[in-house]
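Limitations

Structures in this collection are predictions, not experimental determinations, and the ligand pose is part of the prediction. Treat each record accordingly. The example that follows, with nicotinamide-adenine-dinucleotide as the small molecule, is included so readers can see exactly what is and is not provided: the inputs are given verbatim, and the output is the predicted complex.
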Amino acid sequence: MISEVETAMKIGIIGTGYVGLTTGACFASLGNDVLCVDNNEKKIAMLKKGHMPIYEPGLEELVKTNIKENRLAFTTSISDAVKKCEVVFICVNTPPKENGDADLSAVEVVSQAIAKHMTSYRLIVEKSTVPVETGSRVKQTIKVNARKNVNFDVASNPEFLKEGSAIHDFLNPDRVVIGVESKKAEKILRDLYKPLSAPIVVTDIQSAEIIKHASNSFLASKISFINLIARICDRVGADINKVAEGIGLDHRIGKDFLRPGAGFGGFCFPKDLAAFIRIAEKLGVEMKMLKAVAEANEDQKNYFLKMIEDNLWNLKNKTVGVLGLSFKPDTDDIRFAPAIDIILKLEREGVKVRAFDPQAINNARAVLNGTVYAKDSYDAVKGADALVILTEWNEFRQLDFKRIKKLMKRPLVIDGRNIYSPEKMRELGFQYISIGRPTVQ
Ligand code: NAD
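Predicted complex:
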């Protein structure tokens, strides 16, 4: 059950992206007074007018309502947020460097700025995903840059929301993790999260940082594991859906994250896996298992590409209709999306790609130049030698395949997300290839 906070807090959010904007809007909806900061002026100008810079279901309504209620505001000034708010969340991006390390330069810049503007006690909370021991660096940076006699605490409060269901996940978390060094910081964060009635795990800062990286690495491992099992199924004609059901009903394993596909992507799993491997290496621990998880994911994209090549024979000058560009359904986020990698590789081989996605086309335009963007799913398959499914948006599950068959040059569907029934596709007259399920000709 979600209620409102007993005493509203003034909360500053630095970094108004997928995580920061959701966090800000949700804390405001619980009755707090929230000021969101971003150094992207265009983004802040849009938000002030109630326009969304990202697509996330339900976010626009939540933001608009809370702006109207005067509980949510936007600014480009960190100084304003630090002066006004006792609790300041760092939600900036922590992208991967070439070598896999997390690039923490935005976290450092923001920590310096927070320090400079603090005039009385502040609780600075890292919500961005960061390698273990970043909290100590943030603390040191603030100490060096802050005025003398200004007290502060640093805490870690990793975020576990999923894009596409971010608001629901934020307001209904399986657990809230709080890494703290003082009773005062613990009390503030406990009070803030009290309305969610979720289990709260209180730890030291390092443990909280490890919990986030370990959780994402474990989930990524489950996906790579089931993808490898699916490849065995492909070899022998077994059915991965049944195998996953048989594995997942064991409570020690659980059924979530046992769906095979064309590889995982997004702004969390690939980069967090890489960063965890790197930080462990620096600490003298070689994460052989996680290296294999990352490698299996790269292999999976190539495995899927080979499926396309095997079925089209020569790729040059073939036309492929692609459905899905975002890394998962219900988001416009294409960061590290397998779809982008796969399309780039197909285009390099001379394939003409006609792609459609309900939300991600604008973002894709920045990275895919040779692609033709279709106005809908039917436009994408016009004259296509194959239809390739790369993201499992719900609207792709209910297509008129009789119409699709007439529009295509060849009735071949290669499904990287296993969203159709092989039997139904055969009845409709398609050659249907999916991952880890018997091929129906
Ligand atoms: P994002 O790129 O959508 O948002 C980050 C925002 O920070 C951007 O709007 C950027 O302009 C802003 N920013 C960068 N430097 C700044 C500065 N110096 N001052 C003010 N603003 C600045 O990223 P995101 O997806 O929201 O992820 C943020 C963090 O949360 C990352 O560490 C990510 O790993 C973690 N995380 C993401 C998700 C997710 O699903 N996206 C889930 C859990 C955790």
